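Training component of the fellowship. As part of building independent skills, the fellow (R.M.) carried out the full modelling exercise for a liganded target. The chosen ligand was adenosine-5'-diphosphate. The inputs are recorded below so that the supervisory panel can assess the work.
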Amino acid sequence: MSIIKVESLSKKFKQAIKEPGLSGAVKHLFTQKYHQKVAVDEINLNINKGETVAYVGPNGAGKSTTIKMLTGILVPSTGKITVDGLIPHKERIENAKNIGVVFGQRTQLWWDIPVIESLSLLKDIYEIPEQIYKENLDKFVELLGLGDFLHLPARKISLGQRMRADLAAALLHNPKILFLDEPTIGLDISVKERIRKFIKEMNSEQGTTIMLTTHDLDDIEEICERLVIIDQGRKIFDGDLQAVKDAFVRERTIHFQMKNTIKSLNKNLEELPSVKIENIHESRFSISFDRFQVSAGEISGHVMKYGEVIDFRIDEPKIENVIKKVYDGNLNLGNLEKEGETSDKKEIFIHC
Ligand SMILES: Nc1ncnc2c1ncn2[C@@H]1O[C@H](COP(=O)(O)OP(=O)(O)O)[C@@H](O)[C@H]1O
Ligand SMILES: [Mg+2]
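Fellow's submitted model of the complex:
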């Protein structure tokens, strides 16, 4: 059952056309010209309870506009939305009880009062029972490390601290759905890691449905199981992340560690199609290959002829390769079906 249903959703903005310079600005006062910007263009999207969805696309693609419509901040121009059975812009208050929202670019904390006071105000606004508030606050203080700055006003804390406090604020009322718009933007790697771990935990332990926009590919890799790509307001791709990676990222690398030092590797191995031997260093080396031309098993079979393999590891394919293919228009359902990779996976489709 879909918890988020989006049908033919569009949002058009009226944008002023101004000629450059002062005379342009003056002219605009008298002869106002506008054009219509279609920010979101006939999007269909169903998200099930507990899913983790990365909603990605270039700047200006319409990601934030979609999130704002789903949270009831903006009214759609056309199309239908239901979020847990409610129409967000018509039932804003009811909808707010079901959702948590974090916009990386702005905070929902009050600027001049201590963070703990903001959280306490949210408790009253959302009518959170004392017991739940206390349990959640204790949990978030621990998981997000809020202790050091709970008593400082939002304006005095760093961006990373602010984002952690905002996450706590968004989740205090145990929402079913969490919308995150660029939650890791501008943060250093250790804070990013902490935030990702926390979001994953909320998903796996509370079953919170996650919809995330991000420019950070590691956010996608670590948090999301499903990838939706939009470009110029249109959905151009929607699919299971792992299925897409398995099907489309051909290159794999295996790192071997042998018992003894390796001086050179024999010709048979190098003559396998697409095989490249890299980084031979004492007892370690790596082999990269195209998995459509040769199998990992074949390679391991050859390697074992050199001696005892103590350890080996296959690199996970990177999502950036997939995204690049989508933008280049090289990814389509035809290929995927031909390779027979998706029989038991979620539907994958592409409109272009
Ligand atoms: N309030 C607004 N008024 C006019 N145009 C807007 C407004 N908000 C967004 N837009 C335009 O809509 C398009 C999509 O914006 P946005 O949803 O913020 O993109 P993204 O979040 O993917 O970067 C952009 O061209 C942007 O300039
Ligand atoms: Mg945005």
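The panel noted the following from the submitted structure. Residues 333-352 have pLDDT under 50 and may be disordered. The radius of gyration is 25 Å.
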